[in-house]
Write a structure and sequence with these properties.
The protein is α/β, with parallel strands linked by helices. The chain is built from 11 helices and 13 strands. It is globular, with a radius of gyration of 19 Å. One of its GO terms (molecular function) is lipid binding.
């Protein structure tokens, strides 16, 4: 059975890697006023941050239409028997539900929508591992079982400079945003049951980063092989510094750098930093 992997743009997998492993990407959209852009296609992360600085109003985002999913699935049905469609957490976007709806409208191919429960490179790791297995000829059920294993081992923590972006988008309650802003708290955030939730309240970014390092160390000390991504919202130099520091501290871990692209940065704001890791 020939299986292909689809993911959405919020995985932020570089194009050359998508091409190398035959991963197909369906874009979400970022909206400035009446102008709508498909992220990773019509607008880059750099262009987004520049536009956000000069825009009168904060941008919004939207999921792919069911029609876009149907069109992509029908195109892939000509060459593949199965599609595993891996998407960002179902409680922060309707993208996964859109894949489910489209799967029921396409004939000639079996579609397996998969809720990663995460986003950004945590989700990207899922898609890359799945694509490697698909290229090896693994059956869809085996790939899905591997994704469940990855999900159980995945951890990710992130912090934002301005809580109002999350509050405005309905991802954080108004009271939490107000308290955090007044006290200059840098809360560590994570995903629990597909939702963004506060993990711990910490006063400074340095202390928050050190707390993430300690959490990573706990898993490294268990002896399992890990891969880890430092994810940034227009803070590449800081991300490189973090990577250099962590590579010295944890030489057995595979580190990489990724980014919060337009759609996710719409809700996190510029300056957000996250670290995600899972089993190799």
């Amino acid at each position: 059975m020939r299986t292909v992997i689809v993911t959405d743009s919020t995985a932020y997998i570089p194009q050359e890697i998508r091409e190398r492993y035959s991963i197909y990407m369906i874009p979400l959209n970022v909206i400035f006023g009446r102008e709508e852009y498909r992220e990773e296609i019509d607008i880059t992360a750099d262009e987004f941050f520049e536009k956000m600085r000069t825009s009168d109003k904060l941008p919004t985002s939207s999921q792919p239409s069911t029609g876009q999913f149907v069109e992509l699935f029908e195109q892939l049905s000509k060459d593949y028997d199965a599609i595993i469609s891996i998407h960002l957490s179902k409680k922060i976007s309707g993208t996964y539900q859109g894949a489910i709806t489209a799967a029921g409208m396409v004939e000639g191919v079996k579609v397996y929508p998969y809720n990663s429960g995460w986003s950004c490179m945590a989700q990207g790791f899922f898609a890359i591992d799945a694509a490697k297995m698909a290229l090896e000829g693994k059956e869809p059920e085996e790939i899905l079982a591997r994704l469940d294993e990855l999900k159980a081992s995945t951890k990710a923590y992130f912090m934002v400079n301005d809580l109002t972006h999350l509050q405005r988008g309905g991802r954080l309650s108004g009271s939490q945003a107000l308290i955090g802003s007044l006290l200059k708290i840098k809360p560590l955030l994570t995903f629990v049951d597909d939702e963004i939730v506060p993990f711990e309240k910490i006063r400074t970014q340095k202390k928050a980063l050190n707390r993430i390092y300690d959490l990573l160390a706990e898993d490294v000390n268990k002896g399992f092989p890990l891969k880890c991504s430092i994810i940034h919202a227009n803070r590449k130099e800081q991300a490189l510094e973090i990577k250099d520091e962590l590579e010295i501290r944890f030489p057995t871990v595979d580190f990489s750098i990724s980014y919060f692209g337009p759609v996710i940065a719409t809700h996190l704001g510029e300056g957000a930093i996250g670290i995600a890791w899972m089993l190799k």
